[in-house]
Structures are given as structure tokens and as C-alpha cells.
Design goal:
Elements lengths: L1 E7 L2 E6 L10 E9 L2 H8 L12 E9 L11 E4 L9 H4 L7 H5 L16 E4 L1 H5 L3 E3 L6 H4 L2 H13 L7 E5 L3 H12 L3 E6 L2 H9 L4 E4 L5 H7 L6 E6 L4 H10 E9 L13 H7 L2 E4 L8 H9 L9 E6 L3 H9 L7 E5 L6
Parallel strand pairs: 8-9, 8-11, 9-10, 11-12, 12-13, 14-15
Antiparallel strand pairs: 1-2, 3-4, 3-6, 3-15, 4-5, 5-7
Length: 353
């Protein structure tokens, strides 16, 4: 089969690799669509993991093989593949910190080499633990593979929205109107809150309004705080969701978030970035700082329901489609987006674009 193999920093090689061999409790999935995620880009562009590896984890496809001990799954079924499932027994899992679980971190889907997601290949193998523990989700007939590939990123964003306790009537500032920021806007609106968005690209500011933001501003606007306060009766927003790794965005969040509000870090910052802050700001204004990494198993079914029943419009997030052989070009576009670049989808089985 063909796969895009990570051979070193910024080195992707479109090459022939063996189709993964199944153990008795494993499932083989033919990948139809896989989303390009910022975490994939980070792993490709920085020396974080030793090559060779095959990345890609926002995967939707068709079951192409099942081990002899697998129950409840058949060849031909359309499925979403979740690349991590927690153990549900460790101290982290018992406290709902599923993404900290060692099983969650270390058992993942693979197309060969060190297991690393494996979606950037024609076929991906799903380990027995993931098969047995809810990591395959049937795709309804009415739902396209493209739509289904959004279940995993929706689950990640949904975890952040739930952790921040976004609720009806609140106002939420979303910094960054890329594909993740736009999904945040949709989810905030779905849960009955109002979204205010910021970005640096005019077309993304317009896109934020199109997908449901009540207001959207240039992040460089000198009057941003005043405009946010005018929309919130002089109080500031209840919560800010940081969807871009920017220290400037963080300080804007401090200025725009009300006393007793929350600021949630969703985007991962470069390790060398340090943000100086006077702790009395948090103390006197009772601001909660929190982080949200990856997804929550407890919200996986809700994420699938939201996508499958079109409670948010994931089709509006798709901007580009690339065949697998052009993954490097897709990564380049994601790093240097055009004004109309949002979510990029990759197709191992077909030539597109």
C-alpha cells in the first residue's frame, strides 16, 4: 500500500509499505478521508519524534479486514476511527483525566513503524484495545466520510467547551478563526452562548460571522477591549478560548475576560515561550486559567451525535482537498495559509485537486 512516511523534519516520503498484518483481535480499515491536524503539522515540522512514522489521526473509512476473535464488526462497515482510548481504570481515568492515561497515550492506531496514528496511508490497523473499548464508531448512511472525519476534532473542541463550563446566555471570546476557532464558534452557539471572535485575516473575520459569531474583530484593533466591553454590558466575556498560541492573545484575554471569568489554553505554545504574569491579577480578579488537551472519552458519543446530526456545519469548515501523494503540499499550505484556507482533508484512495 501507499503511505506518507515521516523520514525526518520536513521530510515526507510517499512510498510503498506493507499492509499491516492483523492479530486476532484487530481490525483493518481502508482510509477514505483523513483530516490534516495542527498536531500532525507540528510533528512533521519539528524534531519531536524519531522517524520513521506514519501520522494522521482524524480518520474515516471502511473496514477491510477483521481478526478471527473480533465480535460485532464486519468487512464493509463505514467507521470513524478514534486513535486513542483510555484504560478507564487508572487514577487519571477515575478522575476523568482520560488524556493523561498511559494506555491512552501509548496504544494507538498504526500503518506501520512506531504506532503514530497511521491515517496518512491507504490502510490503518486498529489495535484490539481500541476495537473492544469503543474506538470504532459506525457512520450512518446519510453521513459522508468527509463529515465523519470531523468527529475526532469535534471531540477535542467539545472537551474544552465543557471544561470551561460554557452555558446558555454566556459570552465567549474565541481568539483565532482558523478551523479550530470556527468549530469553537459553532459549538459555543450550539450550547446557547454568544461568541466573539478575533483574527488577523479579514476573510477569517468574515467567516467567523458567517458560522455564527455575534461579532468578530481584527486582533490588532486598538479598541478591541472597549468593543468587547460594549457587547458585554461593561463586564467582559465570561470565558476566553485561546485557539492560537500567541502571548499577545493571552494578554488580550486577560483584558477582555470579566472578573470571575475563565481563560482556557487550547492551542499548544512553543516550549520556549514563557508568559510573565502578576499573580495578583488572577487573585484579585478571580480569573481561572485552565488547559484542555486532546479529547474526553466521556464526550465521544456526544461529539459523534453533534457531527452526524449536523448540529454544527462541518462542511463549512472544509477549504481544500488533496490526494495523499500531495500531503507535503497540503502541509505547506496549512503553514502559510491563503486567506481562504481552513480545514484541509487528505484522500488516500482517490486523486483530487
Amino acid at each position: 500500500m501507499k503511505a506518507q512516511v515521516f523520514r525526518g523534519v520536513n521530510q515526507l516520503n510517499y512510498e510503498e509499505v506493507p499492509v499491516p498484518e492483523l492479530q486476532s483481535d484487530e481490525v483493518l480499515v481502508q482510509v477514505r478521508v483523513v483530516g490534516l491536524c495542527q498536531s500532525d503539522i507540528k510533528k512533521i515540522c519539528y524534531p519531536l519524534y524519531e522517524p520513521p512514522r506514519i501520522y494522521g489521526h482524524e480518520t474515516a473509512g471502511v473496514i477491510a479486514g477483521v481478526g478471527e476473535d473480533v465480535k460485532g464488526w464486519q468487512v464493509g462497515q463505514r467507521v470513524v476511527v478514534m486513535h486513542h482510548i483510555p484504560c478507564m481504570r487508572c487514577g487519571y481515568c477515575l478522575n476523568d483525566n482520560f488524556s493523561m492515561c498511559e494506555v491512552y497515550k501509548n496504544i494507538t492506531t498504526t500503518a506501520g513503524f512506531t504506532p503514530s496514528g497511521g491515517g496518512f496511508a491507504e490502510y490503518v490497523k486498529v489495535p484490539g484495545h481500541i476495537v473492544r473499548s469503543g474506538g470504532l464508531i459506525p457512520i450512518p448512511d446519510r453521513v459522508s466520510f468527509e463529515q465523519a472525519s470531523f468527529v475526532e476534532p469535534t471531540s477535542c473542541c467539545l472537551k474544552a467547551v465543557k471544561k470551561a463550563q460554557v452555558s446558555p446566555g454566556q459570552t465567549v471570546l474565541v481568539t483565532g478563526a482558523g478551523p479550530i476557532g470556527l468549530m469553537f464558534i459553532m459549538l459555543v452557539k450550539y450550547f446557547g452562548a454568544r461568541a466573539i471572535a478575533t483574527d488577523l485575516i479579514p476573510s477569517r473575520i468574515e467567516k467567523a460571522l458567517a458560522v455564527g459569531a455575534e461579532a468578530a474583530f481584527d486582533a490588532r484593533d486598538a479598541d478591541l477591549q472597549q468593543k468587547v466591553f460594549s457587547l458585554t454590558e461593561g463586564m467582559g466575556v465570561d470565558t476566553t478560548l485561546l485557539a492560537v498560541p500567541s502571548d499577545k492573545a493571552f494578554f488580550q484575554a486577560l483584558h477582555c475576560t470579566r472578573k470571575g471569568g475563565k481563560i482556557l489554553f487550547f492551542a499548544e505554545f512553543p516550549d520556549e515561550v514563557e508568559i510573565p504574569i502578576n499573580p495578583n491579577i488572577l487573585y484579585r480578579r478571580e480569573i481561572d486559567l485552565m488547559g484542555s488537551y486532546s479529547s474526553s472519552y466521556r464526550l465521544q458519543s456526544l461529539a459523534a451525535d453533534i457531527v452526524f446530526n449536523q448540529r454544527i456545519d462541518v462542511d463549512a469548515l472544509i477549504s481544500d482537498r488533496y490526494p495523499l501523494q500531495k500531503l507535503a503540499k497540503a502541509v505547506e499550505q496549512a503553514i502559510k495559509p491563503t486567506p481562504d484556507t481552513y480545514k484541509i482533508l487528505i484522500y488516500p484512495q482517490a486523486t483530487v485537486g
